[in-house]
Amino acid sequence: MASEVLAKPQMRGLLARRLRIHMVGAFLVSLGVAALYKFAVAEPRKKAYADFYKNYSPEKDFEEMKKAGIFRSIKVGANKRSEEQQKQMVFLKRVPKGFVSVLG
Q1: Which phi and psi (to 5°) does residue 6 adopt?
Q2: Which residues cross the membrane (predicted)?
Q3: pLDDT at 97
């Protein structure tokens, strides 16, 4: 039997070297997951919201819900304002908040 000399294992600094390698790997994996989430989840979600609100009308939606009877405090035929009331509402929307208490 020929005795072969085995190379000594590196003991000093082994943990620091392995930790450095694993930290770089973890950083790269986290960047990949963040990019995957952004382009696979966040961007399509933003696009879906933008498409929905592009043609969304809250007044139309309110009227449909009112006709369906969702609101218990509003009767189906109620809430029709006269022209004078509508003009007053438009005027009050333009007046700053501090003046409303003086006018009311």
Answers
A1: -85, 145
A2: 21-40
A3: 60
Q: What tokens does 36 get?
A: 């995957």
Rounded to an integer, what distance in angstroms lies between the CA atom of residue 79 and that of residue 83?
Answer: 13
Which residue is listed with tokens 């509508």? 86
Which of 11-15, 31-35, 60-64, 97-101 has the lowest average pLDDT?
Answer: 97-101
CB contact at 8 A, 50 and 40 = no
In angstroms, the CA 101 to CA 93 distance is 13
Distance (Å, whole) CA 21 – CA 82: 75
Domain ranges of the chain: 15-93
Residues 6+ positions from 92 with CB-CB distance below 8 Å: 100, 103
pLDDT band at 2; cut points 50, 70, 90: low
Tokens 């004078």 label which residue? 84
Query: Which single residue is written with the structure tokens 């409303």?
Result: 100
In angstroms, the CA 91 to CA 89 distance is 5
